[in-house]
Amino acid sequence: MDVNNSVALVTGANRGLGRAFAQRLIERGARKVYATARRPETVDLPGVEVLRLDIADPASVRAAAEAAPDVSLLINNAGIQTGTDLLTGSPDAVRQELETNVFGHLGMIREFAPALAGNGGGAIVNVLSAMSWFGGKGANAYHLTKAAAWAMTNGVRLELAEQGTLVTAVHLGLADTDMAAGWPVDKIAPSDLADAALDGVEAGSAEVLADQWSRDVKSRLPLAPEEFNAAMDRALAALTAA
Fold it and tell me: Its family (predicted)?
């Protein structure tokens, strides 16, 4: 798929990765960019068409799909992290992350799939995480949702292949956004992440490992669980000590 002249819709486009996606799409020649947010007044990027969208609200998702029937590239970026563990954390917080990070993305795909088919197949980008593959204290609900979103992405890729829709999973470690502000470590620039993802779409890639951290984590998946956990403990210790 050629990003140039595409019609893209970006969720969570008011800041961070979403804003970077919208900006790079404009700079790379997209014909139209729908920039969506729960509070549309917070979108400050010129040259975009702003839509209100709460991906955890099915009615809001349906309204966005009706307002943007010409979309050929869907960027599922919006997500939340509540800092919740599975056993001691609030069950409501776990459900909130699942509703947004998994069912919110799936709802977007279900509503926009007919438009993508009608516009030639198009492409979907699901912004995931290296935490699709590992957990950690204080972030196990997030790990659960990203692992589930990875599985969902792999499933819808198979189901949408017949209509010619590319589904690209994008994994990263940490990006230089508000969500990662408390981590004094190397982070990928949001614009670099957006370019890596869009380059992957143009190359027809099913998966983009956007930084060295995500590549390292995935390379350890063949290890036994005990070996994997020990390797991740060492990697995290080295990361935080750097």
Answer: Belongs to the short-chain dehydrogenases/reductases (SDR) family.
Residue 149 CA to residue 144 CA, distance in Å, equals 9
Q: pTM score, two decimals?
A: 0.94
Dihedral sign, Cα of residue 140, residue 141, residue 144, residue 147: negative
Contact of 79 with 132, CB cutoff 8 Å? no
Condensed to tens digits (0 to 9), the pLDDT of residues 87-125 reads 999 999 999 999 999 999 999 999 999 999 999 999 999
Report the alpha-carbon distance of residue 182 to residue 199 in Å, rounded.
Answer: 29
Cβ within 8 Å of residue 106, ≥6 positions away = 152, 156
Q: Which helix (H) or strand (E) holds 231?
A: helix 225-241
- pLDDT tens track for 159-209: 999 999 999 999 999 876 666 555 556 779 999 999 999 999 999 999 999
